[in-house]
């Protein structure tokens, strides 16, 4: 049984999708804990209601980023994690932290990486006139929102889309993609060579059902 630790900062809808899939699909894994850097993260309530241990490590309580990272790492390690999942975790993690969990630390980003790392991805995709948008699950490296891509989901950008409408369309796919990607990790179905992640069975690491064929 693999131990999964999930880090959130807010709403936690991706965490929720992973918790539901883990239970519903009977993964060979357990959600060992949900940690947040904010006590007011809405997602903590869902985790508690589902009997999952929750912990808060307030970043504001630490004088330096390194001190926060060190305490966070200590608290994560206490759960002997096989997989550490960043799900809307809004703190940049330093090199020591990333190296400590490298290979088992994953993130979801609401763009088709390597396009649009960082914030306001949907606004930037619309401004660039992109015709597709989406989300990427990737291994975390010391480069913000970069790292070997585990899977991607693609959605169309529709004429007249607002930032909110596009974000909503992408988020619905995130909720399918992230559990799928974590399940591949739980089942040890991925191999990473030279920065390229492939599924052992050659399964497409792509969700494109919502890509709106004409
Ligand atoms: C998601 O769009 C995710 O891609 C990004 O932050 C958002 C988190 O949403 N990293 P939630 O907290 O999972 O609902």
Can you tag this structure with a few keywords?
214 residues; alpha/beta; eight-stranded mixed sheet; two-stranded antiparallel sheet; 10 strands; globular; binds 5-O-phosphono-beta-D-ribofuranosylamine
Helix content: 25-40%
Strand order of the largest sheet: 3-2-1-4-5-6-7-10
Strand content: 15-25%
Order of helices and strands: EHEHEHEHEHEEHEEE
Distance between the termini: 44 Å
Structural class: alpha/beta
Mean pLDDT, nearest integer?
96
Largest sheet: 8 strands, mixed
Which kinds of small molecule does this entry bind, naming each only once? 5-O-phosphono-beta-D-ribofuranosylamine
Count of helix runs: 6
Q: What integer value in Å does the Rg equal? A: 17 Å
Bulk shape: globular
Structural write-up:
With 214 residues, the protein is α/β, with parallel strands linked by helices. It has helices spanning 13-24, 43-49, 65-77, 95-101, 121-127, 163-186, and strands at residues 2-8, 29-36, 54-56, 83-86, 105-109, 132-139, 149-156, 190-193, 196-199, 206-207. The strands form 2 sheets. It has an 8-stranded mixed β-sheet with strand order 3-2-1-4-5-6-7-10, with helices on one face. It has a two-stranded antiparallel sheet with strand order 8-9. The protein binds 5-O-phosphono-beta-D-ribofuranosylamine. 5-O-phosphono-beta-D-ribofuranosylamine binds at residues 8, 10-14, 87-88, 108-110, 135, 171, 174.
């Amino acid at each position: 049984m693999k131990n999964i630790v999930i880090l959130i900062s807010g709403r936690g809808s991706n965490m929720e999708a992973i918790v539901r899939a883990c239970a519903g699909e009977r993964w060979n894994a357990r959600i060992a804990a949900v940690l947040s850097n904010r006590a007011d993260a809405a997602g903590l309530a869902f985790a508690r209601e589902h009997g999952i241990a929750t912990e808060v490590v307030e970043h504001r309580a630490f004088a330096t980023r390194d001190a926060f990272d060190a305490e966070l790492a200590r608290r994560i390690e206490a759960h002997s994690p096989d997989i550490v999942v960043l799900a809307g975790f809004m703190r940049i993690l330093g090199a020591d932290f990333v190296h400590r969990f490298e290979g088992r630390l994953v993130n979801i980003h609401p763009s088709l990486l390597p396009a649009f790392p960082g914030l306001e991805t949907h606004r930037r995709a619309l401004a660039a006139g992109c015709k597709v948008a989406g989300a990427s699950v990737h291994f975390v490296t010391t480069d913000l929102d970069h790292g070997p891509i585990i899977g991607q989901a693609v959605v169309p950008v529709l004429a007249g889309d607002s930032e909110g409408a596009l974000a909503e369309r992408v988020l619905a796919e995130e909720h399918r993609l992230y559990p799928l990607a974590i399940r591949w990790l739980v089942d040890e179905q991925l191999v990473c060579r030279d920065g390229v992640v492939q599924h052992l069975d050659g399964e497409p690491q792509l969700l494109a059902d919502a890509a709106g064929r004409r």
